[in-house]
Amino acid sequence: MSLVLLSLAALCWGAVPQEPTIQCGSEAGPSPEWMVQHTLTPGDLRDLQVEPVKSRVATEDYSVLMNISWILRADASIRFLKATKICVTGKSNFQSYSCVRCNYTEAFQTQTRPSGGKWTFSYIGFPVELDTLYFIGAHNIPNANMNGDGPSLSVNFTSPGCLDHVMKYKKKCIEAGSLWDPNITACKKNEKMVEVNFTTSPLGNRYMALIQNNTVIGLSNVLENKLTRTSVVIPVTGESEGAVVQLTPYFHTCGSDCIRRRGIVVLCPHTGASSPPDNSRSVLGGWLPFLLPALLVATWVLAVGIYLTWRHERIKKTSFPTTALLSPIKVLVVYPSEICFHHTVCYFTKFLQNHCRSEVILEKWQKKKIAEMGPVQWLTTQKKAADKVIFLLSNNVNNVCDGTCGKSEGSPHENSQDLFPLAFNLFCSDLRSQNHLHKYMVVYFREADTKDDYDALHVCPKYCLMKDAAAFCTELLHVEQHVSVGKRWRACHNRCSAL
Ligand SMILES: *[C@@H]1O[C@H](CO)[C@@H](O)[C@H](O)[C@H]1NC(C)=O
Ligand SMILES: *[C@@H]1O[C@H](CO)[C@@H](O)[C@H](O)[C@H]1NC(C)=O
Ligand SMILES: *[C@@H]1O[C@H](CO)[C@@H](O)[C@H](O)[C@H]1NC(C)=O
Ligand SMILES: *[C@@H]1O[C@H](CO)[C@@H](O)[C@H](O)[C@H]1NC(C)=O
Ligand SMILES: *[C@@H]1O[C@H](CO)[C@@H](O)[C@H](O)[C@H]1NC(C)=O
Ligand SMILES: *[C@@H]1O[C@H](CO)[C@@H](O)[C@H](O)[C@H]1NC(C)=O
Questions:
Q1: Pick the residue with more confidence: 285 or 239?
Q2: What is the pTM of this model?
């Protein structure tokens, strides 16, 4: 049976001549045919084209290759054609050059395909780099003769960048966020607020959203390290309807050069509605004045026993939303480098965590982040994220006290750069503004003599620990209320309780 099939196949083979195909391999040097004089040579190529294609090669960086296709001239000289050689020169930061030679498996019997149409071939190879100019030259073999013209046909090809539908699959582009779909939606909540929603990427943890029509009218930073849908409300200083939202991601491999995305601000479906936290606060604030007279009336009407039970329940009920609001408050602690870290900073940190329901941000714990972001950016970001900024001062300078507390990062000998003067200078303008002053506090452990260098700190509320511990905690936990300056102004006596 199989023998019959085999002979049948052999018969077919004999009857229909096989159509030529190509077999390509690299050929760096000159072709062997070049050394020999040929009297009869094939003509030029008719056409040469290049396009990038996504290949199925496993190594990701070579996932985009050139699809080089060419058309043979339909003339009698095609009978002498043995091969076509293609050379590619790439010009970007460095120059690359390589050639392939594609042998035709059969001699050409006809000027066109048996099925009609010109002879067309394509070769997929030559990795394509981003934004690179390529010169692609091709010539037929055997070529005219030794002193003949060079490549018979050449084209230029400039590879596109990461936004191209094929190039976006390059590893470098994927790392820069080419496959990230932020799906930005933005709407104008009111004259002062724009709400921007977008999907974050696990590739990075920081984003900047910019609202601009002609000029920048609003800006906000978003910190998020997982893939999730986030929402940010950005205050704006101009007409935002129709404005552009530009989202700049800061991914690990591309830093500030990542692919930026855009969206358009439209009107929110329900304009005028304020954000949920404001809402709940205003509801509570609005109802309390009405509830109090009602309670008074109730005292007259109801018997004392019933009243007491009722009030008990009332207190129970109202206390629930308050406890729900008790999220930890973020505190950025800055301290001069001469301060005794282990004894003072750690002690203070533990005190904040255990007694003042605080989440503490310390430079010592975020060394890596500071190195990545730069100290100014880090301080600015942390200041924004924090509910309170505490300048921790102490005269308790001791050479043998350095050490680490809590988180493992940072060793005693790793000399930390002193962020204190930087923080002081960076936040100094806030200290002059009543609107921002409430965010700052000064804490002493020994004596209340602010060094002359930090005069501006005199305007901040000051506390001497542990003496003022209770007042300090109360103040800290009432971050929402803008406490009038100077009210908490206390002289810290020379002998604060020892640590
Ligand atoms: C193409 O033909 C040349 C000359 O016959 C030979 O040296 C070369 O190895 C061939 N290349 C391939 C890929 O078959
Ligand atoms: C390469 O280009 C040729 C000619 O345009 C086309 O027929 C072929 O499908 C392309 N190959 C791939 C993998 O895209
Ligand atoms: C290719 O680019 C080079 C340099 O820019 C230019 O001199 C040449 O004319 C271009 N060739 C084609 C075919 O466009
Ligand atoms: C983009 O987000 C909108 C609103 O959340 C959603 O309806 C839509 O399906 C999302 N589109 C894509 C492509 O994820
Ligand atoms: C953003 O997301 C929030 C919560 O899912 C939703 O209420 C709001 O309508 C969204 N806004 C926009 C502009 O998509
Ligand atoms: C941009 O905002 C400014 C300030 O509100 C406004 O006067 C201007 O018309 C806006 N431009 C566009 C193009 O919307």
A1: 239
A2: 0.51
